[in-house]
Amino acid sequence: MAIHKKIGRWFNVHEEEIGLFMWTVALLFLVRSSGIFLNNYAETAFLKRYGVEYMPIVNMINAVVTFFVMGVMTGFMTRLPGARLLSRLFIFCGLSVACIRAIIPFGIDLIYPALFMLKSQYEVLLALLFWNLANDLFNTRQSKRLFPLITAGGVIGQILGSFATPLVARWLHLDNLLLVYMVTALAGSWAVHAMGNRYPTLLFQQKKEGPKKKRATMIEEFKAVLPMIRSSVLVKILVVLTFMPNVVIPIMNYQFNFAVNEQFATESGLIEFFSYFRGVLNIVSLVILLFVGKLYDRFGLPVALMFHPFNYMLVFITFLFRFDAVAAMYARMSANIIRTTINIPATAVVTGLFPESYRAMIRPFLRGTVVRIGLFLGSGLILLSDTLFHPRYLSLVAMPFVLAWLVTPFVLKRRYAAILLDLVADDRIDFRSLDAGELGQVFRDKQIQTSLIRRFQRESGENRLWYGRLLKSVSVPDLDAHLLAALGDEPDMQTRIGLIEMLSDQAGTAAADVFSALIETRMPELAVAMIDAGHRISPQTFAPFHQQIFESALPLEVKARAVGSLYTVDPDRFAPIIQGWLASEDTDSLRAGVIAAGVCRDRRFAERLKSLLSTSDHDATLLLVLESLHSLNVTGLNPLVVLRLWDPDPRMRRAVIDVYQIEDETSLKNVIPLLGDDSKEIAGLAREKIRTAGYQNSLRLVKSLSLPRKKLREALFDLLSDMSIKDLDVFRFVQLQARTCYQLMVQARGIRQLSDGDLRNLLAIHLDERVWFTLQTTLRVLAAQDASGRMRMIARSLSSSDKRQRANSLEAMDDILDKSLARLLTPLLDDMDVSERIAAGRRLFPKEFHEPEKWDLFDGLLVSRNWVTLVLTLTLVRQLAVVPDDCSRIQALVEHDNPHVSQAAIELLEHNGFPTRAGDNHGKRSLDSLDR
Questions:
Q1: CA–CA separation, 852 vs 848, rounded Å?
Q2: Does this chain's domain 18-209 share its CATH topology with 216-444?
Q3: Where is this region: Disordered (predicted)?
Q4: CB of 491 within 8 A of CB of 522?
Q5: Residue 531: alpha-carbon gap to chain centroid
Q6: What gap in Å lies between CA 432 and CA 430, rounded to an integer?
Q7: 3-class state of residue 817 by DSSP
Q8: What mean pLDDT, rounded, does the chain reach?
């Protein structure tokens, strides 16, 4: 466990994620290591046994086959769970390659181009299914944190597989590398099955086949995108940036393979080269992946997009003058590094400028139609040149395309400002898809920033605020000066307030001078905004301005904010003023004191503010008190404010949730209902409160899914997804609920074996009802988890009085749920005797549910959190005159929060002559009604 914790701390993997994370890394390790064995062998065998001159035609056929294979795989993915499909694909890949190994001795040359294509198909399909499965296992927040580490595990697999290839080839013979691939592929299938057994919810949901969408033809894609190409310069640029690389990539790959094939005359020499070269290349990739951030951040986007074509130009020039393995290694390694670190991220940012509706049309067109045309053209050029000149001179064929590719970023740089401003003006830029760093790169160009500033200065009202926020988000230099200049000519007060809020903490004396001039407007809201900004920027710098406010004719509540800020500069002078206000009987003065205490954030005023929570009955004052206590970061307020969590005034609920702390299960249960609050702001605050709380209980959140309000359930699902809680927690919840049901049945049977009596029967019936209620809660959670709605129908049918309908529902439940879940629940829901159910529970939970002795039975019931169970058990123990073996548990119940439980414990202890350890008898109300 210590090693697991160290791994989690080093790599930022949460403790509950470590097991699943390690299995996922191991699975990708097997995918990549097996793929590298097959790749090294297939390329070597193709080049040496079939011929490098056939590579262009094989690549063209492979592109067509890929198109159809992906269509077939998409159909399978809609019908089968991802894990099952991945497992079967591993088996198919391994056995098919083993069959090819079996027919190699027959001398059929066509198996080598077939194997060359299969290795590409298998690599793509296994990676596709793996990442689909990984996306099912981890939510978006986990993905950003864990996927780079998981990818690193795959790269390590490629490194080890690469360096192991020549050793294995020498030990087992070159052709037997195919059998090694079969073994690693079957190991991958086993790993998927092992993950399924360890994490049953991996296969929790069957794939729901949705309506089939007709795949768009190439002509239809052209028709859809053609208007965008005509109207948008950026789309034209993206088409060129996608088309040109895919023309020259086949040419460079052909030259690479031709050069190394000529350099290494034997199969053993060639496979050793492929192995060691790819091993080193993957080590470099691993270093880049783990330690190098976004290199394109250091350049503007247009400049970043120039690196890749410029490097290709160098590659083709190098091939022209030096056509050997050294040039080939430089070509492949430099292209991979620049593509990974600069070109792919930069292109993604440019594509991400468009709104989602535009990207939905552009991306399939670029990645499908444009890529295929480019690859076909590149391969066709190789075929045409095959009989005309040496592959070295293909560099001359490729250079015009590289030159066009290289010119395109220069065109983008020259027209970048106009393109972006047009996108902004037409509201076609998707700012939500860009993070802060990417947004800064998009608007890094000085010309763009100058144009945005001019538009900011020309606009007014909400438009001016919009441009101001954009300028602030891209960190425009000297923005404070532009904001302060705009304050003077902006007529709208709310816009002025918005501009003031944008000022940075470095605004300084220039802002103080502008604020002093604006006091003459005598607008209270504007004055409050200026005071808050001045206090945030520098209380010392703005002290003269705040003194000017204090001496003005503005309302007292406005002056109070200025006094709060002045207190931080001169507490000896202003503390008596605040204390006097807080002690005043006058409501206005009291409110001024509360405001000033909140602004200055001095805890010396905390006790007075807390006392106002208990004594004040004026809601407006209480709102100010809560706001000030929140500013002071005062804790321990839960008992004083808990009842206000459900106040009808949303402002009060909003203020209370700010100061309420989630520190135990009770406080968590109090906040959960606010997730369904009518106010979106309050619901959002409750969500954030739960997500960031020091006390976390994912099981309580999952249990709350059984609550009846739909809005609350939807909010809980969103929160659970955000908090890395997935189907695995649901499985644990069902497992816990099933164990509880079996335990309650054992206890109910033990109670029925006692001497007959009404109280005994009442307790047994109560335990039976708890079993039923626990099952209903479990079914409702499963129904809420099932997006198809089938589980909800089954849950209703299981409560039917018709045995046939119940049996059919159980059968349907077996088909929907994972086998592990169905095995837990079926005995509880099936029509069978209690003893058979208990026997099934003992098989499911070995070493549990033994028949308890009399006191052990009662002792087990006394740990219940259900107060009715506790009261009935304590009363039955007293009625049967059972002498406890240890009265410490009963003595602890004397202090129980529920008065009925406390009273029952006191009466039992007094009946047996034990001390109660209670100062009083809580009124000593009789429980004779229960006896009767």
A1: 11
A2: yes
A3: 913-932
A4: no
A5: 39
A6: 6
A7: coil
A8: 82
Q: List the one residue out of 312, 313, 294, 314 whose CA is nearest residue 304.
A: 294
Do the Cβ atoms of 76 and 85 come closer than 8 Å? Answer: yes
Give the C-alpha distances (Å, rounded to integers) separating 350 from 198, 213, 217, 285: 42, 28, 26, 24
- What angle is formed at CA 603 by the lines to CA 600 and CA 606, rounded to 5 degrees? 105
- Residue in the block written with tokens 């069978």: 832
pLDDT tens digits along 678-736 = 999 999 999 999 988 888 887 788 777 666 577 887 788 778 766 655 566 677 788 88
Which residues does 183 contact at the CB level (< 8 Å), separation at least 6?
94
Helix (H), strand (E) counts: the chain: 46, 0
40 Cβ neighbours under 8 A, 6+ residues apart: 162, 165, 177, 271, 274, 275, 278
Q: Which amino acid is at 799?
A: S
The tokens of 61 are what?
Answer: 């056929």
Closest CA to 60 of 284, 316, 250: 250
* Cα 860 from chain centre: 40
* Contact criterion met (CB below 8 Å) for 369 and 218: yes
Give the contacts of 33 (CB within 8 A, at least 6 positions apart).
157, 158, 160, 161, 184
Topology of the domain covering 18-209: Growth Hormone; Chain: A; (1.20.1250)
Taking residue 387's Cβ as centre, other Cβ atoms within 10 Å add up to 7
pLDDT per position as a tens digit, 796-814: 788 777 777 777 788 778 7
| Per-domain boundaries in the chain | 18-209, 216-444, 726-851, 853-932
Regarding pTM above 0.70, the answer is no
3-state secondary structure of 178: helix
- 582-585: Cβ within 8 A, 24+ apart: 582/608, 582/609, 583/608
DSSP output for 437-484: HHHHHHT--HHHHHHHHHHHHH--HHHHHHHHHHHHHTT-TTHHHHHH
CATH number of 216-444: 1.20.1250.20
Q: Do the beta carbons of residue 174 and residue 52 sit within 8 Å? A: no
Is the separation of the CB atoms in 247 and 377 below 8 Å? yes
Residue 564 near residue 597 (C-beta atoms within 8 A): yes
Question: Which is nearest to 342 in space by CA: 390, 374, 308, 310?
Answer: 308
